[in-house]
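User: Teach me something about this protein's shape.
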Amino acid sequence: MTEGTMYPQKKIYTLMDRCPMGTAKLAEALAKSIPNMEPLVRNRSSHFAKKGPDGKPVKDYADLAQCHKAASRALAEHGLVVVQTLTNNTDGDIVLCTQLLHSSGEFIDSNLPIKASTADPQRLAAAITYARRAAYCALVGLAADDDDDGTTAEELAKEQAASGEKRIVDMAIKSLNDAADPERRKAILDRVAEHVKSGTVRKSAYEDLASMADDANKSAAARKKQPVPA
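Assistant: First, the predicted structure itself:
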């Protein structure tokens, strides 16, 4: 790199980029709202909740309804409201748009892409609800979850990845069992190989499927060699 040459830098959008009117009135209203918010009651247990003395999972997070209950009245008293809408980005992801609006016209917002498959409506709805709660709490200053230093999020990601791989492998096994010829089995393995490249399926799982397809091909070839009964 020659002297004076600079690498192109990605634009980092600051609050003022998105709020041309400023945020002085909004910030004052939010500062007055926070002390008047109701105590946030954690009323749900996550999959990773620790067990209490009674052996039952402890309540380690507050659901979206509890977050609204804790904050919405105090926000409204000072001219604040949170609005959440859904749109799409150019990559085809669903994007959650969350805005904290003030009666003066000032606002702050956030846009959060949701990486969830539209082919599974239940998982998609759960991902949207999770994102809404996280974005809502971030904008109004609530802490709805126990602080786990990222452990829960990491374990949840691993669980979702394992579940996705299992669905793909189960479908591949069924398709291999139903396949009538080696060409069809190869096409199935080729599709699984694409998932290996994207990281959705482990190479070891693909190798197990390839071994299964090879056994099926050998069995089919052996049946063809058997003499036809007179």
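Now, about its shape. The chain is about 50% helix and 10% strand. Residues 1-13, 147-151 have pLDDT under 50 and may be disordered. If you'd like, I can walk through any region in more detail.
User: That's plenty for now, thanks!
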